[in-house]
Design brief:
The chain is built from 15 helices and eight strands. By secondary structure, the chain is mainly α. Among the domains are: 92 residues, K Homology domain, type 1 (Ribosomal Protein S8, Chain: A, domain 1, 2-Layer Sandwich); 124 residues, Hypothetical protein af1432; 72 residues, 2-Layer Sandwich (GMP Synthetase, Chain A, domain 3), CATH 3.30.300. The strands form three sheets. The chain has a three-stranded antiparallel β-sheet with strand order 1-3-2, covered by helices on one side. A three-stranded mixed β-sheet has the order 6-7-8, covered by helices on one side. Helix 8 packs antiparallel against helix 9 and helix 11 runs antiparallel to helix 12. The termini are far apart.
């Protein structure tokens, strides 16, 4: 039994040893195979690396050769440029020397000419003295005598020819002009209305007067300060008066008060709210008015700003004559005249409509309405005839065509008809404008309004720039300048108001 077991154990050990020996030989063969493969791959990689390295060396060499060639070319180019610059510099130095020589020669010649001029003047003076002595007549007397003789001789030569044609032309021109004016006036009939300095506002009851005045006069003070007008509340039942020379400002004030009266809520905050709303509505309305005028006359296209200025002319007067009414009258008369004289009717209509467009800017900008009108029309590329008509209707230029001449004639006709204009009103408006302009020219002034028929100027200043001490000095300065520059009856009250206001919003 034991022997059997030992035999089994020996056989097992023998089998294990044989298996180990066999596996070891197999692993050794496999390892040698893998080692040979790895060596082959390493050799291939090494060969490829050497190939890439050699190619890189060749490429680097080529680049070095190329860069060296470029460097050599650049050196040659710079050398060439330097040579050229040296040649130019030598040439310039040579020319500089030549110019210096020429300058010296010119200076010598100039000195010589001055010397000759002085000698010539002496000889002329000597000759004139001899002539004066021999003729018993001074130089100026001789000159006047010669001019007189030439003028009379020319008159004698021209008078007969000119007189004949002048008489004939005068007769024909007078006949034609009378015909054209008669045709224009009979074919156009405009509506004429005089401008006043006040607007009347009807009230539902006298109770509204108290609301407009407000507690301790706060409402009427706020209205006059914000609107820039004079509000007159007297014993006349059911009405109040709004007074100001500026038609646009007065119209806005009238509309604002009418809305406040109709609404019933009258207090400073509501006044400011309604005033801003009315101003926006008026800006829109003047544009619509201008568009309607241009469309009605068939003058589209026209720039929006020009149409807005046309609408604003409804609130502008010249010598008491409404500027828009005058403009429309001139435009229609000019169109009729141009058509009669064989000109461009539409162009004359356009020139007549825009001839006084600068007046819509004079109250805000200041300056001559002719220059302002030309500037705004040139800015928006209006026809050269329109520009010429603006200049010509006040004599700045001669009319360059039938259309401009028609505008000039129509402007004179519109302005000179009986009752068209009132000089007294225009002088008053000019005076209050001057008073406002003096106040507005001062530093720190926000706004200024002439009220109470021009007897008071109300000036609002920036509280951050003008302190209480300077308010007194400013009022004295404005009053003194008004005394020196403006002609006015009686006295003008200068009222300077300094108010500090801060606004914040709770959200």
């Amino acid at each position: 039994m034991i022997e059997s077991i030992l035999i089994v154990i020996l056989l097992t050990l023998l089998g294990v040893g044989v298996t180990y020996w066999f596996m070891r030989n197999e692993n050794k063969k496999q390892f040698k195979h893998l080692e040979s493969e790895a060596k082959a791959k390493a050799s291939a990689i090494e060969y490829e690396a050497e190939h890439i390295l050699s190619e890189a060396k060749v490429h680097i060499k080529e680049e070095e050769v190329l860069l060296d060639k470029k460097f050599q070319d650049k050196v040659l180019e710079i050398t060439k440029q330097k040579t050229e610059l040296d040649l130019e510099l030598k040439s310039l130095r040579k020319k500089e020397k030549e110019l210096y020589k020429i300058k010296k020669n010119l200076e010598k010649k100039e000195n010589s000419l001055l010397s000759l001029e002085a000698q010539k003047r002496k000889e002329i003076d000597f000759t004139i003295a001899l002539l004066e002595k021999s003729a018993a007549m001074t130089k100026e007397e001789a000159k006047q005598y010669l001019l007189q003789q030439v003028e009379e001789q020319s008159k004698l030569e021209l008078v007969q020819t000119i007189h004949k044609y002048e008489k004939q032309a005068h007769q024909e021109a007078k006949k034609k002009a009378n015909y054209i004016l008669a045709q224009a006036v009979t074919r156009y009939a405009g509506e004429f209305a005089g401008e006043r300095l006040i607007n009347i506002i009807n009230l539902p009851s006298d109770e509204h007067k108290g609301r407009i005045i407000g507690k301790e006069g706060r409402n009427i003070k706020s209205l006059e300060q914000l609107l820039g007008v004079d509000i007159i509340i007297d014993e006349t039942p059911g009405v109040i008066l709004v007074s100001n020379f500026n038609l646009y400002r007065r119209a806005i004030a009238t509309k604002t008060i009418e809305i406040l009266v109709e609404d019933g809520r009258i207090h400073p905050g509501r006044i400011e709210e309604v005033h801003e709303k009315v101003k926006e509505e008026f800006e829109q309305k003047i544009l619509e008015d201008g568009e309607n005028i241009v469309i009605e006359l068939g003058l589209l296209p026209m720039h929006e700003e020009l149409m807005k200025l046309l609408g604003r002319m409804r609130y502008r007067a010249s010598y008491g004559q409404n500027a828009l009414a005058h403009t429309l009258e001139v435009a229609k008369l000019a169109a009729i005249m141009a058509a009669e004289m064989g000109g461009d009717e539409k162009l004359a209509l356009r020139a007549g409509l825009l001839h006084d467009i600068g007046k819509a800017l004079t109250q805000e900008v200041g300056g001559n309405h002719v220059d302002l009108g030309v500037e705004v029309c040139q800015r928006y590329d209006e026809h050269p005839t329109v520009i010429n008509a603006i200049y010509a209707h006040h004599g700045y230029e001669e009319p360059d065509g039938v259309e401009s001449a028609a505008v000039c004639a129509a402007d004179t006709l519109s302005a000179s008809r009986p009752g068209a204009r009132r000089e007294v009103l225009e002088s008053f408006v000019k005076r209050v404008k001057e008073v406002e302009a003096i106040a507005l020219s001062k530093q720190g002034v926000i706004d200024a309004y002439a009220i109470n028929a021009g007897r008071e100027i109300r000036v609002f200043v920036d509280a951050g720039k003008i302190d209480d001490t300077n308010v007194y000095l400013l009022s004295k300065e404005i009053a003194k300048e008004i005394e020196n520059k403006v002609q006015y009856p009686g006295e003008i009250k200068v009222n300077v108001i300094r108010e500090k206001r801060e606004i914040q919003y709770a959200r």
